[in-house]
């Protein structure tokens, strides 16, 4: 632990920067349609606004430990905040798609170190018995940020302009910078050689994986040679990187950190949490808009209680983690998450907003119960010298889990809609007595009646596909529960 004054002000400043960075992973999604016309982009190319940020952030995140040692943690954090705010302003003033993609790349580069460094600082400045409360506050920003991002982005886009989605970072970043300049402690630097080969191999693997996940849906996944190239390059890069770090004297990531069992299991858990958190967030807004006809603002209001549940859970679990076995809290959180997903499998096009709010609150409570003890126990037995590299890897695995989860549920959604449409459409024929009773005009091949039936079939096929995705995530959650029993409870002080 590092002895500091004004621990509360340091925490507020760090969390302001963290929330600012995390918000940008989802806040721009709803503004893409508005950007398309202003930037002269097409529906396909505008997605590079999201892809460029994700890929750049994923590649630079593993460098956080090395940069923190060479530049200093405080200095790197301040540079990251200044660079992120500056590139956010540049994104808000972008004049074309190439300029926007370039600024988003730089935004991802500068923002990559903010989340892992914020976690490192909170672990450094708090005693071990208060690590749970520190991780509760950090987790609240990490998990609530993506939830409120689409709501805030939709409101800014409709009320003002899509450019304010990026310009909103200026006041938040300025406050975070001033607080960190005034109170963040200066720590000694370390001389550490840079493993260029290891970094290049890991960057190649991560970049190819992210491109495959982001581009797969546009090119029909493995029906396109492009996807296979990304997959082969990613597998080859990861394999060569693993061989490299095991045989090099001073590798880019020290493999000794993986000897800690809690850290290894923690990486698996945070991967699962990433899948559940952002995959469900990727499914619900289009479902509420397409099936229930909710406008953007109403969708945000209905989904907001999910964030409230997460906040309540983290406020409670921050204190419980000191007296209750963290493994029990993780199991309880996974159970609540699975129950919420089970309830979501009962959604119907005729329901009101109450089932969405109720399941969202329960899921928020469950994810909060998982995230805080997991973030605490994963680093409880890890040597402090590995902390910067470990937190960057923790954030990277969470982001990869989110990307994979979104890609899986989106691909499953597209495939299942076609299958369900074909199966439901097979029942529409002149010899079906129920069809003749419900809509006699359809038997006579009336165009208006057939068009209405096709719309109903599309609606029901989409609803069944959403339910299939919720069920898939429920089984992923249940399969992760036995891993909690493998975690080792840290020794009490």
From TrEMBL:
Primary location group: membrane
Keyword Transcription regulation: no
Domain Major facilitator superfamily (MFS) profile as annotated: residue spans: 10-492
Transmembrane segments: 48-68, 75-95, 101-123, 135-156, 162-184, 196-213, 228-246, 267-288, 294-317, 329-348, 360-381, 393-413, 470-487
Entry's localization field: Cell membrane
Keywords attached to this entry: Cell membrane, Membrane, Transmembrane, Transmembrane helix, Transport
Keyword Transmembrane set for record: yes
Family statement drawn from the similarity comment of this UniProt entry: Belongs to the major facilitator superfamily. EmrB family.
Protein name: DHA2 family efflux MFS transporter permease subunit
